[in-house]
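During the reporting period the student researcher (J.K.) took over the structure-prediction task from the postdoctoral fellow and processed the backlog of single-chain submissions. One of the processed entries is reproduced below for the supervisory committee.
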Amino acid sequence: IGMCPECTIMLAGGRLPHKGTPFMTRADRISVIVTDAPDRKALAAIRSLGRLGFRVAVAGAKKWDRGFFSKYCAERLICPSPSKSADDFASWLLEVVAGGRFDCVMPMSDYTTIPLSRYKRELEKHTCLAVPDYEVLTVVRDKPGILKIASRLGIGTPRTWCPSDLEEVEELAGEIAYPCVVKYKKGTGAIGVRYAHTPGELLRHFQTAVHKPDVVFDDIVPMVQEYIPGGIHDVCLLFNNGRVRAAEVHERTRMYPASGGYGVTYETRHDPQLKADGIRLLEEVGWHGPALVEFKKDPRTGAATLMEVNTRFWGGLDVSAHAGIDFVHLAVRMAIDGDVDEMYDYRHAMKYRWVAMELRRALESSHPFSEMLNLCKLERGAKCDLSLSDPFPHIVETALALGRPVRRLVLRNRLQ
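J.K. obtained the following structure tokens:
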């Protein structure tokens, strides 16, 4: 293990990857496209790779996306919105990489991972990827299907029902315990996750969709799960054709929204059993690339229950890097060099705060004063997403956030 001279991230083997070359020079840098410029995962990846000497090109659909304003962004690539048309995005990317300027592409969301996986063979003629084959991706993205595989392996899963029509929902409504969870069989993040406390609420959730069908939400008929209390524990993994290469576990100690969603504060955990269960599941399907296996731990019993698998890099990507495992760097190395050494050592009980999300949660809370007090508390040794050496992404994001209410007010006045 070596240390990067520009940051505190440990590097496996003490070298940077370039086909056997010990270190990159300014004249001979690996060029990587990081997609999803507005995403916080993308900003973490841009900073990580930039600090290590990579030339980072950032792809996004809007010129004000925050990733474009990082000092480590060497080139801005304005692309078609992958959420509007995955095929248009894939066609654009094929044209961009066909010139041979880019050594690797790192997708940061489901909207970019899916088209890269679908067009993997065509893209790999021109650049390197660390994404699974589309057939494997399809299996893992199907939440009822992956839960059945996990149950067969002896991994704890919640009771799950997949009614096909409203008549079956009406029958189910009188039989199950409440609260229960309604979610899409395929999706991303906490979008579409709703809680039913009565049979009437359950029926209403099935009668109203909260997202239009697209490449990620391609099946908008929801499923129903029993509600499992407890915190969310993330098993973060990197696989190379069915073989695990890195693993780290952290808990989302506070979330936005509080009922479950994006991590606001995190703490790394030492949990060999969770790690082993996550690894077994992805070994079974022959996974390739990064993935996050999400568990809940029931405080009543201490039992861990699988929730779903996120088939991409995760929101707490920066947490993993600060703890000692830089998954983006390892994924780039693996894509270009073919493999990397295994890495499992990281700092346990390290705390991390996503300050921008903490502020948003505080402002929208029913108790904003107490939330703001929590925001002002500084814990020794805690890490956060703010960077004094790279401040402009957060400055731009804050300016845009403050400008939205003003723009709405102006628009309302014009309409009146």
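The committee noted the following: The CA atoms of residues 186 and 219 lie 6 Å apart.
J.K. will present the remaining backlog at the next meeting.
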